Amino acid sequence: MSQKISSPSHSNSSSSSKHDSRQDSWEIIEGLRGGLSNVQEPENQAGYMLKKRKWPMKGWHKRFFYLDKGILKYAKCAADVEKGKLHGCIDVGLSVMAIKKKAKCIDLDAEENIYHLKIKSQELFDEWVSKLRHHRLYRQNEIAMFPHEKTLFHPHYPLTSSPTIPDSQSIRKRASLAKQSSFHSPVSFTSQAKVTAWLQSSDDMDRCTKELSVCEAQLLELNHLLRSMEVLHRTYSAPAINALQVPSCISAGSIRLHASNPNLSSVDLTNEKTYHETLDSPIDVSKLQEDFCRIVSHKSFHSTMKSALCMLTTEKERLKQMLEHDSCPAPSAQLMGLKNALASQDSCDGSRPLVHQASNESRASITESLSEFFDAQEVLLSASSSENEPSEDDSYISDISDNMSMENFSNEVENERLNTGCVENGGSQEQRRCCLPSPSPNTSNISLWNILKNNIGKDLSKVAMPVQLNEPLNTLQRLCEELEYSELLDKAAHTQDPFERMVYIATFAVSGYASSYYRAGGKPFNPVLGETYECDRPDKGFCFVAEQVSHHPPISACHAESKNFIFWQDVRWRNKFWGKSMEIVPVGKTHVVLPGFGDHYEWNKVTSCIHNILSGQRWIEHYGEISIKNSNSEKCQCKVTFIKAKYWSSSMNEVEGAVTDHKGKVVHKLFGKWHEGMYYGSPPSATCIWRMNPMPPDYEQYYGFTKFALELNELDPLTKALLPPTDSRLRLDQRLLEEGNVESAEVQKQRIEQLQRERRRVLEDNHMTHQPRFFQKSRDDTWVSNNTYWELRKDPGFSNFDCPVLW
């Protein structure tokens, strides 16, 4: 019997299309709703999945995952998980989870890291998604109920008892008692749950306690040695002290006379008699000196202190954020108990004079600057005593100290001279503004989640954002900001050695990221198609021009020239939101030519990631590898690595690099922090070649702009008369935001975006494409200057030039 098969109706086809669309897009997995619920304990799940790595070893790598009560652990194989050799551990309950069904991908945004997972089998994918949903709800419910001693990580660190270091267990016990008294009140999955999660990371705080105990023991030993040397210094004649030999364990470059640290140079002499009796000959001084140098120079001494400080700073900031963002109308007994517990521990601070208090100015400010770190590696020889004049026997140590001091001094003078932008031939620097007309607006009333929740995994450059989230600069001006430290290129142009030239080029590539350190809170305006920007800086010796040459995809091209260098790049960005973090992946190359040597350098940019994007405490990091090569010579090349921060590591914002010859042999080493400075050589004798300029006053209130950024959108009448009407400084919405008129800026922003859509529609209707005016495509599909901008500006002038109406 034949059966008639009807063709699918239009509605069915449409429904299928919508279903396919949903399969092709990211879906956010909802979490616990409505507070506590009875979630059954889930079964464990284990198996292999593919995990994506971006750097190093890019691509998908097979890893074994083990899911237990909301905690997802992974390692290379099952045996490694059993042995505790974990590659990572993810709290699924505190992560944003998104899935893409068609691609069989699972993304977990744990704020500090974004985990991209993939499963080949559809059956296994569905099984893992189901298990992760169940475990996530269970974990969130567990956090909301504040269970006893449920820890996220399980490393077993032996604790060293110390009467002066606060015990994390005592804090947890007091908070637990407070919890029992507050159990009758309803608990929602808000900041209280986050505080609970913080308390549950007990082993991490125990590890911090252990490391602080080690630090305290070492500092006390150093203090004991200093007191002993002070006693001997007062007891015996100065020549006996000054005749000591420099221990072989310390290089000559690290010996400096310095008494800048009052905690170490001030000595308690109450037990002077005891020390005098135990040390009866001047020979003991040399032994004391050796012991002191051995402790100070040991790598574990600094690494332990840095690690402990990193932990304290991170935990303090995490707790601060949790308490600040408490959505409850009144503090619960649970939170009050925690605050009281912490307050009682603070009262013990007086008995711990040698333990530094962590700075809370910024999450990323974990350690002191590198220059201060090197200054700490010094031998203190009772320099505070003014009674003993230096004898001829002091000459060896004094010469070393003077040489290093003069080297640093001359380096600082050079940096200061370059940073002031001195103009050759006696020219005077133009007076520029030092403040914006209005501070940045309040953005606390904007719900970013409502804007971004439907755009997981998508390119955010196509998503309309409220103008309050912008800063009064656009992407073209951001490209110009990379030339803030153009004096490094000038220095390279006057350096004969090709390997040292590469050092300056690499440092310049790093310096372009420095201004982003204080700018994680805002985004630049997106330039409209055909928008331009010029920056003529005779004080810095360069002139810069940029143009938005493409809208889909958005591509910005720029070109700068001086008598020493030529700089150009075309950059396109892919912005992706993963639930808590936003990744910015640049595509394109940066080029620098030094005409004096015929060098043509080119390099890539690294990935940037803005973390904690949904709260007020956003922070940015850059990670990946910059590869710099000279296309006109194979004599040398350079690789610079931006180290991705690890949660319990002090490697925040750290950069390492190496200049190698054509055989791959390292000629120069580079290291530093992209927001502080760069050094080359080997510590402690490394030379500082760049430091970030000091920030202007009240920079936090003015978008975190550097002094150079403050000047980029400045518009004086003389300059205005020379600009084309397409210049960014004439853009109304950006100017109104800078002046603090947010409502009018939003109206103008929408109007300008609508004008762009209309121009694009006209081009499409007439089968035309936009042709940039000042840039052209080269053979390798990159955009380069056609060298007409400055000529047209001069003659006939842009007032006599036919320009499109962009706003």
UniProtKB/TrEMBL annotation:
Gene3D superfamilies: 2.40.160.120, 3.30.70.3490, Pleckstrin-homology domain (PH domain)/Phosphotyrosine-binding domain (PTB). Its main location: membrane. One of its GO terms (cellular component) is perinuclear endoplasmic reticulum. Residues 1-24 are annotated as: Disordered. Residues 1-16 have a biased composition (Low complexity). InterPro entries: OSBP_sf, Oxysterol-bd, Oxysterol-bd_CS, PH-like_dom_sf, PH_8, PH_domain. It comes from the Eukaryota. Keywords: Cell membrane, Cell projection, Cytoplasm, Endoplasmic reticulum, Lipid transport, Lipid-binding, Membrane, Nucleus, Phosphoprotein, Transport. Residues 42-137 form the PH domain. GO terms for biological process: bile acid biosynthetic process. GO terms for molecular function: cholesterol binding; sterol transfer activity. It is a peripheral membrane protein. It is found in: Cell membrane; Cell projection, Filopodium tip; Cytoplasm, Cytosol; Endoplasmic reticulum membrane. Phosphoinositide-binding protein which associates with both cell and endoplasmic reticulum (ER) membranes. Can bind to the ER membrane protein VAPA and recruit VAPA to plasma membrane sites, thus linking these intracellular compartments. The ORP3-VAPA complex stimulates RRAS signaling which in turn attenuates integrin beta-1 (ITGB1) activation at the cell surface. With VAPA, may regulate ER morphology. Has a role in regulation of the actin cytoskeleton, cell polarity and cell adhesion. Binds to phosphoinositides with preference for PI(3,4)P2 and PI(3,4,5)P3. Homodimer. Interacts with RRAS. Interacts (phosphorylated form) with VAPA. Interacts with OSBPL6. Belongs to the OSBP family. This is Oxysterol-binding protein. It comes from Cyprinus carpio (Common carp).
